[in-house]
Amino acid sequence: MADKEKTTGKQKKGSWFEGLRAEFNKIIWTDKNTLVKQTVAVVVITVILGVIISVFDSAILHGINLVV
């Protein structure tokens, strides 16, 4: 019984690695140009949103200071 559990465990472990390898082979990697364009787009949008949030924060701070 113990031998059967050990081999079953090894088979499950082996089949898990086979499944992992099969899923890894399904990945479609983007080319370098697309990766660079998407990275630049994310950085630009992040900077723009940071500036917008900073402006809103400053405006709210000045508004609160006027009230107080």
UniProtKB/TrEMBL annotation:
GO terms, molecular function: protein transmembrane transporter activity
GO biological process, one term: protein targeting
Transport listed as a keyword: yes
Pfam families, per the entry: SecE (PF00584)
Annotated compartments: Membrane
Tree of life domain: Bacteria
Cited Gene3D superfamilies: Preprotein translocase secy subunit (1.20.5.1030)
Main localization (coarse): membrane
GO cellular component terms given for this protein: membrane
Keywords in alphabetical order: Membrane, Protein transport, Translocation, Transmembrane, Transmembrane helix, Transport
Keyword Membrane tagged: yes
Chain segments annotated as transmembrane: 40-64
Name this polypeptide is given: Preprotein translocase subunit SecE
Source species: Blautia hydrogenotrophica (strain DSM 10507 / JCM 14656 / S5a33) (Ruminococcus hydrogenotrophicus)
